[in-house]
Amino acid sequence: MSARPAPAASGRVLQDWDPEDPQRWSSAIAWRTLIITTYSMILAFCVWFLPSAIAPKLTEIGFRLSEAQLYWLAAMPGLACGLIRFVYMFLPPIVGTRRLVAYSSLLYALPMLGWFFAVRDSTTGYGVLLALAFACGIGGGSFSGYMPSTGYFFPKRLSGTALGIQAGVGNMGMSIIQLMGPWLMGFGLFGITWIAPQTSGGGPVWVHNVAVFFVPWTILAAILALTLLKDVPVKANVRQQIDIFSNPDTWYMTLMYVATFGLFSGFAAQFGLLIKNTYGPSSALAATFDASLLPLGATYAFLGPLIGSAVRMCWGPLCDRFGGAIWTFVSLLGMGATLAVTTFFLHPTDPSQFPGFLWAMLAMFFFSGLGNAGTFKQMPMIMPKRQAGGAIGFTAAIASLGPFIVGVAIASLGATTWYWISVAYCVLCAVICWIRYARPGAPFPG
Q1: Residue 222: left (phi > 0), alpha (psi -120 to 50), or beta?
Q2: What domain range includes position 44?
Q3: What pTM value is reported for the model?
Q4: Which helix (H) or strand (E) holds 427?
Q5: How many structural domains are present in the chain?
């Protein structure tokens, strides 16, 4: 019997597509889809974390904002993201991969352009800044559409690797915006040097650069999606998709993903401000030590999301080999332990305590990467494919509230109280993971 040909595309829709059957699956199409959607997702996360890159600079260029207002600005994209993900989780089987990625990429340019004009005038109202920060949630919101969509293109045996690469590399947009932000603010971009810089205590800065630099790249992402991507014949309306809520694993996995990604994204969004307000020129240490020798949040803020994203990407193949549950369990224990250690460095009396704070937080980001890879391996293994896609979208929607919850909690409860609440939550989730998924003989190993 001759081998069946690889699935062909009828217009923009793949026909006879089944990733679990090698004769009805094309690895070339699957990996091309992964590459383009991941590229777009990098830009999406740059947009999502744009306010966290800009917020530490606002008071330096003349904006009169309190410490709490800055935390709120960095937190607002998390709130918007969570709400937007509730929409995106239903879109893959309704609009298809091609239009989903293309139109989303174009939307990313809107908040970027808004911030470009807003930071030019230090009298811009705080309400406008909050609205622009909220609009940046579209970047994180699209995640709940991209990931389930990618899941349609890969067999279960490769789901951990594919989703790990997409989420890990995509999450690096959080680091890219925070790493490139200070550099881009240091000079006039070619072609727009006629725009005057803002003035800070250290001299001229071009804060608007970080907002406008990525706009052309979002347009390129849209063009690539429209011309090279295809849709799979998976269709379901909203009513059909809500059956995920009758599956208890949807809720248990949501709890664990809130612990891993929710805390990861939340602390990543606030990392620069935490450093600045605890150890930097805005901290109590500045009154007794030379402020120029204290750490700057912008210098280290990119490290947390970079480590967590890289680990998530690298651990996908290990999750495919050993299962995701055990790595989720290790992640939750590690995050709880490292967050507990960090509490001893939240009220420093000397700048020499900063390395302890930094290394404890970076270790937390490392462990979060393990859990983010593990949970996304678990869901395709323990749930039917379409339900797994919907569950991934829903858990991601809830967990994306992390930047909002963490920012508001730190601003209202204080850092120490919130850290201990996070420790307790990680321990609770570790117990759930061990009993239901990770222990020998667990009822739902994955």
Answers
A1: alpha
A2: 11-438
A3: 0.75
A4: helix 415-433
A5: 1
